[in-house]
Amino acid sequence: MQAIATKELRSRMRGSRAFAVLTIYLLLLSCLVVAIYWFTARTVADANQFGGGSLPPPVGKILFYAVTLVELLLIAPLAPSFSSSAIAGERERQTFDLVMTTPIRARDFVLGKLASSLSYVLLLVFVALPVQVLALLFGGLTLTEVVLGFWILIVAIVFYASVSLFFSAVMRTTTTAAIFSYLTVAVSLIGALFVFLIASVVLGGFGGGLGLLFSGGPGNESPRSWAIYLALFLISLSPLTAGGATGIALNTGDGTFAFRLAEDGSIPGYPNGIWMPSPWVVYTVVYLGLSALLVWAAMRYVRPTVARNARHPSRPPALEPETKAP
């Protein structure tokens, strides 16, 4: 695995593309931070000048959530671009069969490709970490929110790289693998939100909206426990909604790993409310579980097929004895 990862990383970092992407990525984040700070400072100055009016939330919280959101939207298309050609590119260059003839195992081959793809994408996250931590200096943000936001980004990157690697192992061309990878990323980002909105309308009635999803229907205030858990699961399927819901859950003060919903499904909950796991916990279990399953499937698919002996399937085919001439 180490040999494959080292070779891939050296090939990627020798060109100018990796450094160009890193520079543009940091420039965009820096411009975003300056724009948000200027806009917030201007809003506060106008409010103080004219008196009254509502001031914006703390600058640190705005900066952190905005930078994290932009990071996710920038990394989401980058992760498949580095992973979708990992194995399919070997087939296009006609080097896949040559690699499979070496003593390297399929597990080491796939994990090496995955490690090389993750290393560069994780580098983008780590170089932007000072920008995220900078939000702590402006106040209104806790260290727990920073750590959980960073963790949600890492889990999303692992999942996107695993998905792209799986399609790269299954598909024959890089283009096809990239198309399916980008479709999966798009569904992951916005698909769960659409499903949640559609389910809220169907379960609560077309005139009820989200509020009726957590109640028994019009005129019935008893909560639907199964609907609440279903809504939490759907929200946790997207890093966008999972991150936002985690931030709301942290504001309830119940704890980092669990929170309580009120009987009508609102937040914060009451002492007799329903205990729910935090959205980031469900999100982590689902995404890391799917990532492990996809990597395992990629290993199974790239494993070379060995011909078997018909009489003894566990043994390789024996050479036929030479027939002596009469």
Structural class, please?
mainly alpha
Q: Could you give the order of strands across the largest sheet?
A: 1-2
Which blocks of ≥5 consecutive residues have pLDDT under 50? 203-223, 306-310, 318-326
| Rg (CA only) | 25 Å
* Mean pLDDT figure: 74
Q: The biggest beta sheet, please?
A: 2 strands, antiparallel
Number of helical stretches of at least 4 residues: 12
Q: What distance lies between the first and last C-alpha atoms, to the nearest angstrom?
A: 54 Å
Which outline best applies?
globular
What does this entry look like structurally?
It is a single chain. The protein has 326 residues and is mostly helical. The protein has one domain (21-47, 57-302). It has a two-stranded antiparallel sheet. Residues 203-223, 306-310 and 318-326 have low confidence and may be disordered. The chain is built from 12 helices and 2 strands. 31% of the residues are buried. The protein is globular and about 65 Å long.
Topology:
Layout: H1 2-13, H2 17-50, H3 59-83, H4 88-92, H5 96-100, H6 106-127, H7 129-133, H8 143-170, H9 174-204, H10 225-235, H11 239-251, E1 258-261, E2 274-277, H12 279-302
Antiparallel strand pairs: 1-2
Helix pairs in contact: 1-6, 2-3, 3-6, 3-8, 3-9, 6-8, 6-12, 8-9, 8-11, 8-12, 9-10
Keywords:
326 residues; disordered C terminus; mainly alpha; 12 helices; two-stranded antiparallel sheet
Question: Quick summary of this structure?
Answer:
The chain has helices at residues 2-13, 17-50, 59-83, 88-92, 96-100, 106-127, 129-133, 143-170, 174-204, 225-235, 239-251, 279-302; strands at 258-261, 274-277. With 326 residues, it is an all-alpha fold.
